[in-house]
Design a protein that fits this description.
Strands 9-34-33-32 form a 4-stranded antiparallel β-sheet, with no helix packed on it. The protein contains 12 helices and 34 strands. Among the domains are: 112 residues, no CATH class; 271 residues, Neuraminidase (6 Propeller), CATH 2.120.10.
Length: 625
């Protein structure tokens, strides 16, 4: 099938893609998977899977289909003989007449002056039959479309020229314009081939990148294993040291005990001998023996015959033990820093690149009472899925758009007054300003939006950015200044730089935090609009004044390499500045489809989200070779 954009797809592919886009279903239209243009269907009451049946192939595709038909339909038998009711094998094919011929009809065909010089192919040999489709008029099926109307840019038969094109001036024969058409087609073909060559180069680079990523994966895995093995080796070494220490302590204790046991055994033997001598003296009843043994027992020698007391004490002494705190060990192992896996994303803005419209998101919610008027956008990664969040001033709500089970979903958080700016606090929390009620709300992105808390402030803060995990920088309109707030809304200090007799920036609607911890402010000011870079204490790092004398500021952010992107709505462009605040280039202009930019966000994947009128456009960037 061929939609209105003339991109050709099979019906199944277009229907499958349309079913995943709620905006196409609600618009009762088929969505082109390539350019996302919508093709209205006449009978939208039918099931979606039947919508594609109403879209017919283009004239070109149908022509290609028809060009294959003659070879498969009528080359077996002679067409003229078939009309006479006879079945005669065909031996030739006339490209001009688009008919198959037997030998007899071929002779007659060649004898007629009008067909004598027609291009005829021999079917008896193994050759390819050339077919040339003759465009026949649908309204007048018996007439060929031999004329081309340059006013209407249509092929016409003679009757259609007389009936419908009498007022058209440049009606020429098809043969006269065919060379010009062929030249145009050759030029287009060359452009397409050049595009294919460029596409092949890009694909080759992407394939090489895939190979590089896989090789890097193996290298990273090897490094992780090496680091882990180093930690294991260190643990094994400590294990060996402890085991050796146990062996040393044990051998020392056992050696000491064995020495004490030997000395005690020798003492026991000596005591046993003296005990036996005393027993014999008593048994002999000899006065001399009894007297000698008595004198010995009273001597100093007898007093030394005893078991060593030191040996007795050692037997009851301490033993070696292993002091081990399992809980402390687990904590240490949990804190063991083997390394961190991080993704180094090349900054698309670090070198010349081309913007490509990647996707368009309809920010109209199902139950919106008014047309959306989005002011800011942010993207959160929740459960490995990008969740887009926008503030809608007109419907007084914050919206999130995400996919779940491959289906598009949305969430809506209604608030007290028109929400304006978003500040990312962490992976799934954000702060949103409600200036009309002097509040800042904290919202959790699950990806459904859940209100966590509300902070009351003294001023009507519009611009907002997260300065540190515990502080916010908020831009106030009256008085015009930047307030540093804690998470309870208390003012820590006020930044109000003044120069040349006037405030540098009087509209503090758009703030952003740099990687250096400074504050970017984009707004109108004394004499002209400008971008300011301020330290958290109010010192001016740099100032940039756009080319436009009265720019219309509508958003500011920073890239991975500290370049700065700002929106000038009046000039309908996104401008890139260097880290020092000098002009680099225009990243997006009206040539890229930007009509009324109003808020932007650069994701970690280098996709630029831009609010444009009542929709959100997502751009990706390809490096220029």
């Amino acid at each position: 099938m061929t939609p209105v954009c003339y991109h050709t797809f099979c019906r199944k592919c277009v229907v499958s893609y349309t079913e995943t886009r709620p905006e196409a279903i609600s618009a009762k239209s088929l969505l082109c998977p390539f350019c996302r243009k919508m093709t209205k269907v006449a009978n939208s009451n039918r099931p979606v899977e039947e919508w594609a049946q109403e879209v017919k192939p283009s004239f070109l595709i149908q022509g290609l289909l028809d060009s294959f038909a003659p070879c498969s339909q009528g080359t077996n038998n002679c067409n003229f003989c078939d009309e006479d009711g006879e079945t005669t094998p065909a031996n030739a094919w006339c490209v001009e007449c688009n008919v198959s011929l037997c030998d007899g009809c071929l002779k007659a065909h060649r004898s007629i002056p009008a067909t004598r010089h027609h291009d005829v192919s021999d079917l008896s040999r193994d050759v390819k039959v050339k077919t040339r489709r003759k465009p026949m008029c649908k309204e007048h099926p018996d007439q060929r479309m031999q004329f081309y109307c340059k006013d209407c840019k249509k092929l016409q038969c003679q009757s259609c020229c007389i009936l419908y094109h009498r007022k058209c001036e440049p009606i020429v024969s098809l043969e006269s314009v065919l060379p010009e058409m062929q030249n145009t087609l050759q030029t287009v073909q060359q452009k397409l081939e050049a595009y294919l060559a460029t596409s092949n180069t890009r694909l080759a680079k992407k394939e090489a990148k895939c190979t590089e990523i896989n090789e890097n994966k193996s290298s990273l895995q090897s490094q992780v294993r090496s680091g882990t093995q180093a930690a294991i080796d260190l643990i094994k070494k400590k294990e060996r040291q402890l085991l050796e220490q146990i062996d040393d302590v044990t051998e020392k204790q056992i050696g000491q005990l064995k020495g004490d046991m030997k000395r005690e055994e020798m003492a026991r033997q000596m005591i046993r001998q003296h005990s036996e001598l005393l027993g014999r003296a008593l048994e002999s009843e000899s006065d001399v023996d009894i007297c000698e043994m008595y004198l010995w027992s009273e001597s100093k020698e007898a007093a030394t015959v005893c078991v060593p007391e030191s040996g007795m004490e050692d037997v009851s002494g301490g033993k070696a033990c292993f002091i081990h705190d399992r809980h402390l060990m687990c904590e240490k192992l949990n804190d063991l820093h083997l390394g961190v896996i991080d993704i180094i994303v090349e900054d698309a803005f670090d070198s010349p690149s081309t913007a490509v419209l990647y996707d368009t998101v309809d920010i109209q919610a199902e139950d919106d009472e008014k047309k959306p008027n989005a002011f800011d956008v942010a993207v959160f990664v929740v459960d490995n899925t990008d969740t887009i969040v926008v503030t809608d001033r007109e419907n007084k709500c914050v919206k999130s758009f995400y996919k779940r089970n491959k289906k598009s979903c949305q969430s809506k958080l209604e608030v007290q007054s028109a929400p304006l700016r978003i500040a990312n606090l962490n992976n799934n929390k954000m702060a949103v300003t409600l200036p009309n009620t002097k509040k800042i709300i904290i919202v959790e992105v699950k990806p459904e939006l859940v209100l966590q808390s509300s902070i009351s402030t003294r001023q009507r803060h519009v611009g907002l950015t997260s300065l540190t995990p515990t502080t916010l920088a908020a831009g106030s309109l009256d008085p015009p200044c930047v307030d540093i707030l804690d998470m309870a809304g208390n003012g820590l200090r006020t930044l109000d730089p003044v120069t040349d007799g006037g405030r540098l920036v009087s509209d503090r609607s758009f703030l952003s935090t740099t990687r250096q911890g400074n504050i970017l402010v984009f707004g109108s000011g004394y004499g002209a609009g400008r971008v300011l870079c301020l330290t958290p204490h109010g010192d001016v790092v740099f100032r940039y004044r756009p080319k436009q004398l009265n720019p219309f500021p509508r958003g500011i952010t920073e890239t991975n390499t500290e370049h700065i992107l700002v929106i000038d709505r009046r000039a309908k462009c996104v401008i890139q500045l260097s880290a020092s605040g000098t002009f680099v280039r225009e990243v997006l202009t009206s040539r890229d489809g930007i009509t009324s930019p109003h808020g932007l966000y650069l994701s970690e994947s280098q996709h630029l989200y831009v609010i444009d009128d009542d929709c959100l456009k997502i751009y990706r960037f390809t490096r220029n070779n």
